[in-house]
Design a protein that fits this description.
heterodimer, A: alpha+beta, 4-stranded mixed sheet, 6 helices, B: alpha/beta, 6-stranded mixed sheet
Chain lengths: 302, 289
């Protein structure tokens, strides 16, 4: 049985711990509630996860022309995010997804509970974020119908105004991935587009070091804001429709194209070379297509 | 494997009968209604391994030593009932670059090709064994072998005719300095359904070309010639099969730690796998279309 029929019931399971306290010395973390007796959560409930608060701010999105492995859709431009948001510390794990959505679609199930969920469409990712919202007594951001990979979701008209959980915008995702640095990886530049890359090795599971397998989250170093696996692991669906050119004009709170045929994926994956794990690298595909190298993490406006 | 042999032999006999009459897809579809499974094969073979297969191949002419060894695998695959045989990326040592042939060419019976040219050798193998053979080799177009070079897959039908040609579009590392990338994907008809062609890094190249291969051109099987350079290369073949819901017939040449290839079903499950630098024939049954 899939998750949809549980959505209404989950609204009763509010844990009352949503959101993070504001802080001025970098990101603040908060955690979802765990069962008080330490037992495993029941199916249909939210498995605890940590959220990282990202303060409003400006950053340079995209890559400079000089960046090794750069692609043509990485226009560099200034972006200002006027609202604080929180974003999951890790990609959604198979345990988190399975507990809330009542099934685990992953191709790599033998990898284990702490491995990122994959084989989810953009729509399923949006529906999961809705489930988190309802588990935490917040309004769902997406309007969804159907179950499993037949799920279809439409985005809210005021994405950033929605108080519930949703997929991060492409700009939010890149801001969080960069964590205040301008290099392709949080620990520096990229030396090899397709071969072994020393910096990527420290923060990412990617083609050269993955052995063709998925790996548990939080087994590589975090960035400066304590976010894990923003590089490699699984590609992450973000909210935006893909647009080839981001443009060079400064933008405030961008949310992507108003319509399109492909949604954006960010961060690279175990299946791909280090070049795709760069902070500025972009991929895209139809939102109804699952891949065994694509997962997601949720975010919400604070 | 033994348990499948009787059925495979039946398929082989039917395949011989059908391919001797016609190579049209319609004929294949009619044929395969009568059988439940078909066998497909790929070699896991690194160039220069010919004496491990047959010491007498050391006596073959330069540029034909690997072909000597691979001929034996083709015969073995045919004996087991395979209708499709795939060779690895750069698994056949070349004496010299060969001109890029055209789809529709029939090298097996043409004097345009010399007997030492791989295009002719493998065209003759397809004809002799009445099966589809996918050959990977490097080719060039134009007058100068050093100007426009490709990593190519050529698909020969059971008459020896070239029915499809693919140029690697996702060039790996320094390949981009010397090779011209392909720009498209292609399929050809076989008793196992439409077979698509991909070379190594194409598996993680442009997702839209992969999508076209499967969802527009309707590839049911993808013949992958690879020389994967990292451990666990077969896992990418398996993942690709799952991602696109196709059978992958993967032929791997080992380069450094990049060992292993095989045949995978549409869920990415292993049908046959060989993870060693030693030469080996992988062969498996897949459902008839």
């Amino acid at each position: 049985m899939h998750r949809t029929s549980f959505i209404a019931a989950l609204a009763l399971l509010a844990c009352g711990c949503s959101g993070s306290e504001p802080g001025s010395d970098g990101p603040v973390t908060s955690a979802d509630a765990a069962p008080k007796d330490g037992s495993a959560p029941e199916l249909g409930t939210l498995v605890p996860g940590k959220w990282i608060k990202i303060e409003p701010g400006s950053f340079t999105m995209g890559s400079p022309a000089s960046e090794l492995c750069r692609e043509g859709d990485e226009d560099q431009h200034q972006v200002t995010l006027t609202r604080a948001f929180e974003i999951a510390e890790t990609e959604v794990t198979q345990k988190q997804y399975g507990s809330l959505m009542l099934h685990n679609p992953s191709h790599h199930q033998s990898c284990g509970d702490e491995c990122p969920v994959e084989w989810v469409t953009w729509h399923e990712a949006a529906a999961y974020c809705n489930g988190v919202s309802q588990a935490k007594d917040l309004p769902p951001c997406y309007s969804c119908t159907g179950e499993g990979q037949q799920t279809r979701c439409d985005g809210p008209t005021d994405l950033l105004g929605c108080k519930g959980y949703r997929l991060p915008t492409e700009a939010e995702w890149e801001h969080a991935a960069r964590a205040g640095v301008q290099t392709p990886f949080p620990n520096g530049g990229i030396a090899s587009c397709m071969g072994t890359d020393g910096n990527a090795d420290k923060v990412a599971w990617y083609k050269v070091n993955s052995l063709g397998e998925l790996h548990a989250v939080k087994t590589k170093a975090s960035n400066a804001w304590q976010l894990y696996d923003m590089h490699g692991g699984v590609y992450e669906w973000v909210h935006d429709w893909y647009q080839t050119r981001l443009g060079t004009k400064a933008a405030t709170d961008p949310t992507g194209a108003s319509s399109g045929t492909e949604r954006v994926l960010r961060g690279g994956a175990w299946y791909f070379n280090a070049e795709h794990a760069r902070a500025a690298s972009r991929e895209r595909f139809r939102p109804d297509k699952p891949f065994n190298f694509a997962g997601f993490r949720c975010a919400r406006t604070l | 494997m033994t348990g499948h042999r009787a059925a495979a032999l039946a398929v082989m006999v039917l395949g011989l009968a059908a391919t001797a009459c016609s190579d049209s897809p319609l004929e294949y579809n009619h044929l395969t209604q009568a059988v439940e499974t078909l066998k497909v094969a790929a070699i896991q073979y690194t160039d220069g391994s010919h004496t491990k297969v047959d010491p007498t191949c050391a006596q073959a002419a330069d540029g034909l030593k690997d072909a000597c060894a691979i001929k034996k695998y083709i015969a073995d695959a045919k004996a087991q009932g395979a209708v499709l045989f795939v060779t690895p990326e750069d698994g056949v040592g070349q004496q010299y670059l060969e001109p890029d042939p055209e789809v529709g060419d029939l090298p097996a019976t043409s004097t345009k090709w010399g007997d030492d040219e791989l295009v002719k050798v493998f065209s003759q193998q397809a004809l002799q064994h009445q099966m589809h053979v996918v050959l990977h080799l490097q080719t060039y177009s134009g007058q100068n072998p050093n100007t426009k070079k490709y990593k190519a897959q050529l698909a020969f039908d059971p008459t020896g005719k070239i029915v499809a040609k693919h140029h690697k579009f996702e060039l790996y590392g320094a390949e981009a300095n010397s090779l011209t990338p392909g720009t498209d994907v292609t399929v050809f008809d076989t008793p196992a359904g439409k077979v698509g062609l991909l070379i190594c890094a194409d598996m993680y190249g442009d997702l839209r070309l992969q999508d076209k291969l499967v969802n527009q051109l309707e590839a049911r099987v993808v013949a992958v010639s690879s020389m994967w350079t990292v451990k666990g290369g077969w896992r990418w073949q398996a993942a690709f099969a799952k991602n696109w819901g196709v059978y992958v017939v993967g032929s791997q040449a080992a380069l450094g730690p990049g060992v292993g290839g095989g045949i995978f079903d549409t869920e990415g499950k292993t049908l046959d796998l060989w993870e060693s630098t030693e030469p080996h024939l992988t062969i498996a049954s897949i459902p008839a279309p």
